[in-house]
Design goal:
Number of strands: 8
CATH class of the largest domain: Alpha Beta
Number of helices: 11
Helix content: 40-55%
Order of helices and strands: HHHHEEEHEHHEHEHEHEH
Radius of gyration: 21 Å
Largest sheet: 8 strands, mixed
Length: 306
């Protein structure tokens, strides 16, 4: 039998790399703790429980969306109906299909565009309201919120999970590129998005090349491929919550390191808040943090699209 010190060493090394995502793993932890205590050794501390929220690769999002822990991090949106301006438009995509978006045109002819990316729920009325607010505050800028689920919207965690699972990464990429092409070859483009949309906002900036002049991402999965980050033509404003179980501060710090390695600039604003703190339909909505983040984002976008 291995000596107790060796057992504890092996256990600690293992436990630091385990996220307790299931009841079975928690049971194992309890049993091993009891075993070590009987040997007269101190019980190890469990690693903090985190959920890989919005930071797995796009082609692994189906597995993520099926994770009950991931689903429970999203509070069910309160009912809301947007009654303001805007119209639904459609455009072709590279996969031979058609995509759509919610468009608010600039009051006067303009080549300035803001592309808005939804949360995992879909292009619901809250996203339309946020797009309208940005449109009003930015002035002479066209704003389009892309429909990443092709007309479907989730109203429960289960529905949103199924929508996220059933949308292939290839389709998401086609819609992103289709939205950029819809803006036009002469367009000056910035993007903004939350969670799932925060990830897509960064991908938009990578895919858009020299046309992209700005990128705001709220608590979305950072891109970890430095070669892809080198394609950015803009700096990035990243807004995160220090209490976010899916995008913890360590992940954000790694993103800063990767951006530096790619020779790109990123400005990080970290709030003492949870995931989706800026979503007004979230019962855990942080009004003060959301208001500050909005003003920061607005100032950034005005500078980039001015």
């Amino acid at each position: 039998m291995l000596p107790p010190a060796r057992i504890l060493y092996i256990f600690n090394i293992t436990i630091l790399n385990v996220h307790f995502k299931s009841v079975h793993m928690k049971a194992i932890f309890i049993l091993v703790t009891i075993f070590l205590v009987k040997l007269g050794m101190p019980a190890p501390e469990a690693a903090p429980e985190t959920i890989p929220l919005c930071h797995t690769p796009a082609n692994a999002m189906a597995d993520l969306a099926a994770n009950p822990d991931f689903q429970m991090l999203h509070e069910i949106p309160a009912p809301f109906s947007y009654q303001g301006a805007g119209e639904t438009v459609s455009f072709p995509t590279s996969d031979g299909k058609t995509a759509s978006g919610f468009l608010l045109k600039s009051p006067k002819k303009s080549d300035k565009w803001l592309i808005v990316y939804q949360e995992w729920w879909g292009l619901n009325d809250y996203v339309k309201q946020e797009a309208a607010k940005l449109h009003k505050d930015l002035g002479d800028v066209n704003v389009i919120a892309l429909d990443m689920y092709d007309g479907k919207v989730g109203t429960t965690r289960e529905e949103a999970g199924k929508l996220m699972q059933s949308t292939p990464a290839e389709r998401l990429n086609a819609i992103v590129k289709g939205g950029i092409q819809y803006a036009g070859a002469n367009a000056k483009i910035a993007s903004i998005g939350w969670c799932f949309g925060g990830m897509l906002s960064l991908q938009n900036a990578i895919a858009g090349g020299n046309q992209v002049v700005g990128c705001v991402m709220y608590y979305g999965r950072p891109e970890s491929d430095i070669e892809k980050l080198k394609k950015l033509n803009t700096d990035v404003l990243g807004i995160f919550g220090s209490q976010d179980q899916g995008i913890p501060p360590a992940t954000v710090a790694k993103f800063e390191e990767d951006m530096k390695a790619a020779g790109k600039k990123v400005t990080i604003k970290m709030y003492d808040a949870v995931h989706a703190f800026a979503n007004p339909s979230n019962p855990k909505y942080d009004a003060n943090a959301a208001a500050d983040a909005y003003q920061l984002s607005l100032a950034y976008l005005k500078k980039k699209l001015g």
